[in-house]
Amino acid sequence: MTTAVPPDAPLLVLDRLSKRYQRGWPRRRTTFSLEADMKFAAPEIVGVLGPNGAGKTTLFEMIAGNNPPSAGRVVCSGQDIHRVKHDQRDRLAIHYHQSYQVRKRHNRMPSVVLAAAHSDYPRIHLFDEPQFNTQDGYIGFMLNFFRKLRGEGRLVFLCLHPTAQYHIAILQEICERFLFVADGKVTAAPDLTALCADARVARYLGALRPA
Fold this sequence. Notes:
This protein has helices at about 55-65, 140-150, 165-175, 190-195, 200-205; strands at about 10-25, 30-40, 45-50, 70-75, 80, 95, 100, 125-130, 155-160, 175-180, 185-190. The termini are far apart. Helices cover about 20% and strands about 30% of the residues. With about 210 residues, it is an alpha/beta fold.
């Protein structure tokens, strides 16, 4: 039987979360680092932007329990997802990559020592550079789907690498706040215009701009 989700638990807490990749021997050097420390208390749709290789997918993998952090915790609805049984982590968070395929999970710890999930259905949905077919009605269908998830009390992340102005329009229409992943940090902003006040974001977007 599934234990009830604590009613006052935030949907997601990134508690001093960090990931570092190192290489070399005998002196190891850090080749990649990413840090995040923030809370998502209620259902919302969050846009995620950042240059290729900055760590957007790594962030999603850590949130979904697919990639263990080097330090800190990912707390989904009151549970540290990396201490939940492997085959039950997608009851807390689920990671869709590109053509809406679910990312595979890598198990490194025996499930017998891990806890059961407190939820029967994913609380957090992570869409990693989904494809938006421009045929009639498709974009509207997907945006309605994201809104439906939010209306059901879910936390939705939408990661896009904008290559056309309509991508900017999609983000502006659907997202309630934004994250920018770059230089080893995750920066938050209340809207796309505020995010673009960061010179790094302006350089990243190039000629693309919010309306």
